[in-house]
Automatic annotation (TrEMBL):
Keywords annotated in UniProt: Coiled coil
Descriptive protein name: Biogenesis of lysosome-related organelles complex 1 subunit 7
Coiled coil: 64-98
Designated gene of the protein: Snapin
Keyword Coiled coil: yes
Entry's family note: Belongs to the SNAPIN family.
Pfam family, one: Snapin_Pallidin
């Protein structure tokens, strides 16, 4: 049972770290996308104000702002997921250390398990 738990913890740790890295990359791209949307919305408003001909760009600005709101929402979801992953990774590391300490206190590692 201990061997299975140790193997499971060793299996999960790299997956959690990789997933955390991917979430971080997506969050960075979400921030960049939000900045581009803000810039485009500002530019559309400026163009709309500068136009001699009445060209209604408000619906497009509203669509951009709605897209920005969705990007912010997704970014918040990703941030929460990343925090949960960080806590999971911390728990895995803590449990691994606890199990190693128990094994050492019980007289060492079972046959076939490497040391520290």
């Amino acid at each position: 049972r201990e061997l299975f738990a140790e193997g499971l913890l060793q299996f999960l740790r790299p997956a959690v770290r990789q997933l955390d890295g991917h979430v971080h990359a997506v969050r960075s791209s979400q921030v960049e996308l939000r900045e581009h949307i803000d810039s485009l919305a500002t530019e559309l408003c400026r163009i709309n104000e500068d136009q001699k001909v009445a060209l209604d760009l408000d619906p497009y600005v509203k669509k951009l702002l709605n897209a920005r709101r969705r990007v912010v929402l997704v970014n918040n979801i990703l941030q929460n997921a990343q925090e949960r992953l960080r806590r999971l990774n911390h728990s895995v590391a803590k449990e691994t250390l606890r199990r190693k300490a128990l094994l050492e206190a019980a007289g060492g590692y079972p046959q076939g398990l490497p040391g520290k």
